[in-house]
Write a structure and sequence with these properties.
There is one protein chain. The protein is α+β, with helices and mostly antiparallel strands. It has one domain (about 40-210): OB fold (Dihydrolipoamide Acetyltransferase, E2P), CATH 2.40.50. The chain has helices at about 5-20, 25-35, 40-60, 65-70, 75-80, 140, 155-170, and strands spanning about 60, 80-85, 95-105, 110-115, 125-130, 185-195, 200-210. The protein is globular. The chain starts with a helix and ends with a strand. The model is unreliable at about 5-25 (pLDDT under 50). InterPro entries: TM0957-like_sf, UCP033535_lipo.
């Protein structure tokens, strides 16, 4: 076989061999990739006690005050108690404290809730989510120190919002009793989006006690 042909044959064989190779990450590279992966549950857990609860404690007003101010002066209520993400069409979301009596309950569905009277007239003023499924992203949307631009895309932002609900359910709500709640006292700190006219505010708690 001529020398040139032999050299070409070897080069072709080498190219084919390389083409069949599969690059495998080392264990260190795999660990680094895992460490850098987006983990919204961990992001929420890392800030819950240090930032989320203290922020809501400091920002929240009594529900009656917040609700009354949103009805008469939305701009003032937003400045004092609210937050609204600049991107998208998120509603104003308000931090509030609830201190009242449960006057109704729905605990059979996964999106369970209790209706709460806060002004003593035996009528529901606010609906408090008690999980395990929680609609919306009120807790995320009430926080001024997180924003959409910190995330890669809308999917990550949505997952982050859902992780707040997952965390509060596991840390707080799944421990609640599911029967005989009507008539019991309830205290909570959390957030709710501005409701449509005539609708009960949908409140998501970050802290909550029932009875006692």
């Amino acid at each position: 076989m001529p020398r040139f042909q032999a050299a070409c044959t070897l080069m072709l064989a080498g190219a084919l061999a390389l083409g069949g190779c599969k690059l495998v990450k080392t264990e260190d590279e795999q660990r680094q990739a895992a460490a850098g992966a987006f983990n919204p549950d961990k992001l929420v857990a890392d800030i819950w006690d240090a930032k989320v609860v203290p922020y809501l404690d400091g920002r929240a007003g009594a529900f009656q005050e917040v609700s009354a101010l949103t009805a008469t002066d939305l701009s003032a209520a937003a400045e004092k108690y609210g937050h609204k993400e600049k991107q998208g069409n998120a509603p104003w979301t308000f931090a509030a404290r609830i201190d009242g009596v449960i006057v109704g309950e729905e605990t059979k569905s996964r999106a369970a809730y209790v209706d709460v009277d806060v002004d003593g007239d035996s009528k529901a003023d606010v609906r408090v989510s008690i999980g395990p499924a929680i609609r919306g992203t009120a807790l995320r949307d009430s926080l001024k120190f997180v924003n959409f631009n910190e995330f890669k895309n809308q999917i990550e932002w949505a997952q982050y919002g859902k992780s707040f609900n997952t965390y509060v359910n596991g840390a707080l709500l799944e421990k609640l009793p599911r029967e005989g709640l009507t008539g019991k006292k309830i205290k909570a700190t959390g957030a709710y989006p501005l409701p449509a006219k005539g609708q009960l505010p949908q409140f998501v708690p970050a802290t909550l006690t029932v009875g006692g």
